[in-house]
Fold this sequence. Notes:
Elements: H1 3-9, H2 33-42, H3 79-85, H4 89-98, H5 102-111, H6 116-129, H7 141-155, H8 175-182, H9 193-204, H10 217-226, E1 243-248, E2 251-252, H11 257-264, E3 267-272, E4 275-280, H12 284-290, E5 297-305, E6 311-321, E7 325-329, E8 334-343, E9 350-361, E10 364-380, H13 382-388
Helix pairs in contact: 4-6, 6-7, 7-8, 8-9, 9-10
Amino acid sequence: xxxxxxxxxxxxxxxxxxxxxxxxxxxxxxxxxxxxxxxxxxxxxxxxxxxxxxxxxxxxxxxxxxxxxxxxxxxxxxxxxxxxxxxxxxxxxxxxxxxxxxxxxxxxxxxxxxxxxxxxxxxxxxxxxxxxxxxxxxxxxxxxxxxxxxxxxxxxxxxxxxxxxxxxxxxxxxxxxxxxxxxxxxxxxxxxxxxxxxxxxxxxxxxxxxxxxxxxxxxxxxxxxxxxxxxxxxxxxxxxxxxxxxxxxxxxxxxxxxxxxxxxxxxxxxxxxxxxxxxxxxxxxxxxxxxxxxxxxxxxxxxxxxxxxxxxxxxxxxxxxxxxxxxxxxxxxxxxxxxxxxxxxxxxxxxxxxxxxxxxxxxxxxxxxxxxxxxxxxxxxxxxxxxxx
Length: 389
């Protein structure tokens, strides 16, 4: 594993040392604006980012600063070969430390991350053992995510993938890791546009797919070569169809583009006893912008129960149609019910919902329908995932 690539990830580390008795406390870099900025970006970065300088808009450069590119690309080697050659943690640390450049050592010392070489070797150990337990002991948040991603990919175990947003299990696991671990290239549709080409290239193990990645093509190509022999390559599959078709008084009305975009990324089913909770809504950052800018708005939380047939109810939310303004559901002004549920409750399964009812507003009572087509991006047990993180 190239030390230059791992050093780039060191910005995500905390300042506590491995022998610090307070190390088990929640990690926080809020005292250091430099590391705080980097960790903030790592939370939404591509799970594979630590091996290459993927520019997801949250890099080291601050507002108004130019992006700093690697002067020399990280060394490239087959990660599978490194895993196969691994004998023990001690031997790995000894061999890598002996080759560590003094200048790099000075930089790691200044960062308070003298344990980086050990953490790099722990990632290889985790991959070899097929377990994510060693990942939790790594100091840098970016490396913890990287470790879980590589173990998930190598063992084809999507349950090992890190959360897409740390601390938010309802957002599911990282979509790029899920796609790579399952070999289902369709799940790359849940990745951000800047991540998508890299996601597809890694899943298919095909560096030719990196070309649309633009300035990220070199990092994408390196990553494909790096993990080429970890796990099995996926197969090309057509994208899953998604849509939102609302009507009011029997006539089609404009679907909120933010919700359309959210459905295109798939939904997360979060276990709630024998049922699943899911959300049909714009991304959190788009909610405020969406309200008041369109006559139609949808933000609903549903509780789905498997069965024959499956059922669902609206547990809470807000809906708006032309002439009604925003209406809280369920409530005296909202009689919205789920008429049908079709599809599966497993990762990658299509999911179709039809909602019908009435909304009451200033224009009177308006009959409405919502036809939803999406897919299950992930199925999670929220409390268990938080314990793992």
